[in-house]
Q: What sequence folds into this?
């Protein structure tokens, strides 16, 4: 993949930048030629970073359901190089792309956005007052989320609900150093026009449309072309945070974005922190034009792959979390498998509280469980009707024998083999998996089933991000994938586990606390604990 020729045809306009008539746009996936802009080594692995900085960031949950809203930010901790960053929102049900855009971060820059329901459409919309450069540009915000990738037969209100809840992925597509001939990460003589255009001056980046047109309207056929346009191998250093809040009760649930880093070696803390390294350039233009070539090398998404894909891949579909970022992987399948392995757990644990109605201090808990790589193992093809929908397996993800794309694999072939498709859900078809739920009270009460103490009960959890409510109502007002459970006691701890195998799972518990005496509302957030 070092010399991928991926260029757009004539008459393509860069989305929202007002450059209609541009002949081409930058698109390159591969290693760079010039490494002088950084002293970091080439990456040899992809790992979860407990230090929460990296090349990829993952927000486990966003919502605009009911009166809920979401805040999130992305920070470039690199004080020398700018970053070209892809931001994508995916729906909770089946990881459908519901909105994406490109952000250009200057050194030390922070980009912030907020998601809330748009009054006119009933769909989520993202707003920002940030001065960093984006494609589309600032005039396109607020950006209302799109239902284009959802099943055509869903009612309008169901489509709206499906785009109002999900997760967020953030990808460092490329670095933007200040000089095109930067040596050893220090200086150079040839200024990088792209860097100049995104670098803040008196708190505002130029974001000049003509300058973007000059830089991003060049045929990119190899690494040298990408670097001449100002795009170099990404070195990570992104961090982010998120906050989900109830706009009526003023309760907030928040945390760090999960970080994945392309690295070479480990730090000095007993191999706990990966050392950031140079990844592959994975830059694609923010346009809705067909890619026009088979994209199997740059995505593991089974709906986009093959000579006759079920969904025509568009440029804004790229890159995704499976696009080969680590320089040691052979392609998208390897990266998707490695990323799933980095995030897999056999069980997740957390606390819960679900006080009885009329309690002096009402409390209730929701769990969020996100599976950010399930899409690459299996995806839902909606078909012409719900009854015609089907699970599409990624045959290339098989570790042993290869199943067909329509035949369910074995667990040895695909970690998501236990999935089944529910075609009758009110929110549309969703892939579901049976998880074992068990709970324990504070005083050694345990889940009872069949006359004795048991590990718990099995229940289907549907969707790629699902919420589990321990109280009578959902704290997060989950609507698309919500499941209610009956714990053994009003407070304690619980476990969700797969019967066999492991799944990539991240998430948190959100507990609402209401002080009726002072009319105070509080939110408690605890990230999930797990066993591997």
A:
């Amino acid at each position: 993949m070092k010399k991928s020729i991926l260029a757009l045809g004539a008459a393509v306009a860069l989305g929202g930048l007002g450059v209609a008539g541009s002949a081409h746009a930058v698109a390159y996936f591969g290693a760079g030629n010039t490494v002088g802009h950084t002293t970091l080594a080439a990456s040899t692995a992809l790992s979860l970073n407990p230090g929460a900085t990296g090349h990829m960031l993952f927000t486990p949950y966003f919502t605009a359901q009911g009166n809920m809203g979401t805040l999130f930010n992305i920070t470039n901790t690199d004080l020398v190089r700018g970053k070209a960053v892809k931001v994508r929102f995916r729906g909770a049900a089946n990881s459908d792309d519901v909105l994406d855009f490109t952000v250009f971060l200057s050194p030390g820059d922070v980009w912030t956005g907020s998601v809330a329901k748009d009054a006119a459409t009933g769909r989520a919309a993202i707003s920002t007052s940030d001065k960093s450069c984006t494609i589309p540009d600032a005039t396109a915000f607020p950006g209302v989320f799109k239902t284009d990738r959802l099943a055509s037969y869903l009612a309008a209100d169901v489509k709206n609900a499906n785009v109002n809840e999900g997760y967020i992925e953030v990808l460092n597509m490329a670095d933007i150093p200040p000089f095109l001939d930067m040596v050893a990460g220090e200086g150079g003589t040839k200024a990088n026009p792209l860097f100049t255009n995104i670098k803040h001056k008196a708190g505002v980046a130029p974001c000049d449309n003509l300058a973007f047109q000059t830089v991003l309207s060049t045929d990119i056929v190899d690494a040298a072309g990408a670097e001449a346009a100002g795009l170099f191998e990404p070195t990570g250093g992104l961090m982010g945070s998120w906050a989900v809040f109830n706009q009526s009760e003023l309760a907030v649930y928040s945390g760090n974005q999960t970080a994945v880093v392309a690295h070479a070696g480990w730090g000095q803390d007993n191999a706990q922190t990966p050392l950031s390294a140079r990844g592959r350039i994975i830059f694609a233009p923010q346009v809705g034009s067909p890619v026009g070539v088979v994209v199997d090398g740059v995505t593991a998404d089974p709906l986009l792959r093959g000579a006759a894909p079920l969904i025509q891949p568009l440029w804004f579909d790229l890159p995704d979390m499976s696009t080969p970022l680590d320089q040691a992987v052979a392609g998208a399948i390897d990266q998707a498998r490695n990323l799933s392995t980095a995030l897999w757990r056999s069980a997740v644990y957390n606390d819960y509280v679900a006080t009885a109605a009329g309690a002096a201090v009402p409390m209730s808990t929701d769990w969020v469980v996100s599976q950010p790589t399930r899409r690459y193992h299996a995806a839902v093809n909606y078909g012409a009707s719900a009854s015609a929908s089907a699970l599409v397996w990624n045959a290339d993800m098989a570790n042993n024998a290869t199943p067909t794309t329509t035949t369910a694999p074995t667990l040895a072939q695909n970690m998501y083999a236990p999935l089944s498709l529910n075609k009758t859900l009110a929110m549309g078809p969703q892939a579901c998996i049976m998880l074992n739920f068990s709970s324990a009270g504070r005083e050694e009460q345990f889940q009872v089933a069949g006359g004795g103490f048991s590990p718990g009960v099995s229940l289907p959890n549907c969707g790629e991000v699902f919420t589990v409510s321990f109280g009578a109502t959902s704290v997060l007002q989950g609507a698309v994938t919500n499941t209610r459970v009956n714990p053994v006691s009003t407070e304690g701890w619980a476990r969700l586990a797969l019967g066999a195998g492991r799944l990539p799972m991240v998430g948190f518990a959100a507990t609402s606390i209401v002080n009726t005496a002072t009319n105070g509302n509080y939110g408690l957030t605890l990230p999930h604990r797990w066993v591997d």
